[in-house]
Amino acid sequence: MPLRVIGEVFKTYIIAVQGEDMFMIDKHAAHERFIFEKIKADVGALDCQLLIEPVMVQLSFEEYGAISENVEKVRQIGFDIEPDLAPTVAVKGVPLIIGDINPADVVGLLAQNFLNSKVNPQLDIFDELYHSLACKAAIKAGDNSAICELEAVAKAVFENDNIRYCPHGRPVIIKLTKKDIEKQFRRIV
User: Fold this and answer.
1) pTM summary value
2) What kind and span of H or E run contains 133?
């Protein structure tokens, strides 16, 4: 049976129906998890969006060193960052999936992740970074969303069983059956 998006309430929850089931989907939590799963699945192959002008980001000397030592790993996760005059780096590109996030907000997180695993930085240790990127890039509760955006988020939830909880552990979807609703209105006992 096809899923039909009715709309949203409180600029936060998508209302959808399928057969005799109604679903409430937290649009931010669902979109955040979708982006998180996409980043994890595509890590090593994330498309880089080149910036018109480099964004110069000043870091601590430790953070600068961590980025400088891991330029290739940074490229593997979709960033184009070049060390400049210490402790400044030039951000020339960012992963396409993170949208219009300010690169300065992300580079410090990236550097901290490298600092936290100095001995052998591995791409799979970046879950916290991926959570942060996904959260910053996701549709926000309270945002005005077009019906096509709501439909895309709902479709993603129903097509991917991994999208049941946001990266922070909050539920993404609540199901109410027609029977549950009819009990609330005392149409049935």
Assistant:
1) 0.70
2) helix 127-137
